[in-house]
Amino acid sequence: MLIYLNGSFVAEEDAKVSVFDHGFLYGDGIFEGIRAYHGRVFKLEEHLKRLYESAKSINLTIGIAKEDMAEVVLETLRKNDLKDAYIRLVVSRGKGDLGLDPNNCSKATIICIAAQIKLFEQTMYEQGLNVKTVAIRRNNPDSLNPRIKSLNYLNNVLAKIECTQAGVIEAIMLTQDGYVAEGTADNIFIYRNNVLLTPPLSAGILEGITRNTVIQLAQTLDIEVKEMLFTRHDMYTADECFLTGTAAELIPVRNVDGREIGLGKPGAIFKQLLKEFRTLTQVNGPEIFS
Ligand SMILES: Cc1ncc(COP(=O)(O)O)c(CNc2cccc(C(=O)O)c2)c1O
């Protein structure tokens, strides 16, 4: 595997960063998880828009233009001869001293890895996930805004620890006010009273690329969609529930906190949206080998 590291492609065993890199020392950095399907990089423009917005939000200068970053992603896939892959694009504040002052980091570290990722077994896509709401709340937007896809994923990791210790594979985090926010690496949708609901960005969630794609697809299918806060009660009593994310794609939820959702199996709305999503992934995004 060849990895892009600060302007060069290096072998996996040579892909190393300094122990003084602030991405490692302080989680001071940002990242994107992107997918390539059938020789195209799905929603690359949208991912790069979010990456540069995250950078601006933490006052991090990436150091290369968005267009050049797009080429970094495409070239990483070409170098590894990949048409279907998961891409991890990481930008950290860079090497500094042991203090946390970002001003001591002169140049951002840029890394691009193209590989495979599998979050959930195929059976879970067919039967649905069991998920659990956890005590750990989603970060308060006034502290570390979840809109920033930062390297600070300890909030998510702690939620993951909590659900796996309870024997459940995915966690649902609530907002500080107790409304449903999102999963550890995915957004959430419920279908209830003939309306598709998903939490609003103001709830303090990551603006998922897959979330936004599903909202657009639902609209084209004349499925009423509302971005609005909802509670665990709404989730428990929904007809359908599913999660969305680059790694997860669309995955149905069959049980939340011991409550069976709907008929306890993937619903018609989920299946309709997944079918349209799969079609879109085959034709969207810049070609890798054009
Ligand atoms: C907290 C959170 N919420 C929603 C999403 C979905 O966003 P996208 O639809 O843009 O992917 C994420 C995405 N998080 C994400 C994406 C890709 C891989 C991994 C991983 O766990 O390796 C995590 C996430 O981390």
UniProtKB/TrEMBL annotation:
Pfam families per UniProt: Aminotran_4
One BP term from GO: L-valine biosynthetic process
Cofactor: pyridoxal 5'-phosphate
Keyword Lyase: no
CDD domains xrefs: D-AAT_like
PROSITE patterns: AA_TRANSFER_CLASS_4 (PS00770)
A single GO molecular function term of this UniProt record: L-isoleucine-2-oxoglutarate transaminase activity
Record pathway: Amino-acid biosynthesis; L-leucine biosynthesis; L-leucine from 3-methyl-2-oxobutanoate: step 4/4; Amino-acid biosynthesis; L-isoleucine biosynthesis; L-isoleucine from 2-oxobutanoate: step 4/4; Amino-acid biosynthesis; L-valine biosynthesis; L-valine from pyruvate: step 4/4
Reactions that this protein is recorded to catalyse: L-leucine + 2-oxoglutarate = 4-methyl-2-oxopentanoate + L-glutamate; L-isoleucine + 2-oxoglutarate = (S)-3-methyl-2-oxopentanoate + L-glutamate; L-valine + 2-oxoglutarate = 3-methyl-2-oxobutanoate + L-glutamate
Any one GO CC term of the record: cytosol
InterPro entries: Aminotrans_IV, Aminotrans_IV_CS, Aminotransferase-like, B_amino_transI, BCAT-like_C, BCAT-like_N, Class-IV_PLP-Dep_Aminotrnsfr
Record keywords, A-Z: Amino-acid biosynthesis, Aminotransferase, Branched-chain amino acid biosynthesis, Pyridoxal phosphate, Transferase
Source organism, top-level taxon: Bacteria
EC number, as in UniProt: 2.6.1.42
Similarity remark: Belongs to the class-IV pyridoxal-phosphate-dependent aminotransferase family.
Family annotation (NCBIfam families): ilvE_I, PRK06606.1, PRK08320.1
The protein's role, per its UniProt record: Acts on leucine, isoleucine and valine.
PANTHER family: AMINO-ACID AMINOTRANSFERASE, AMINODEOXYCHORISMATE LYASE
Protein name per UniProt: Branched-chain-amino-acid aminotransferase
Organism: Desulfosporosinus hippei DSM 8344
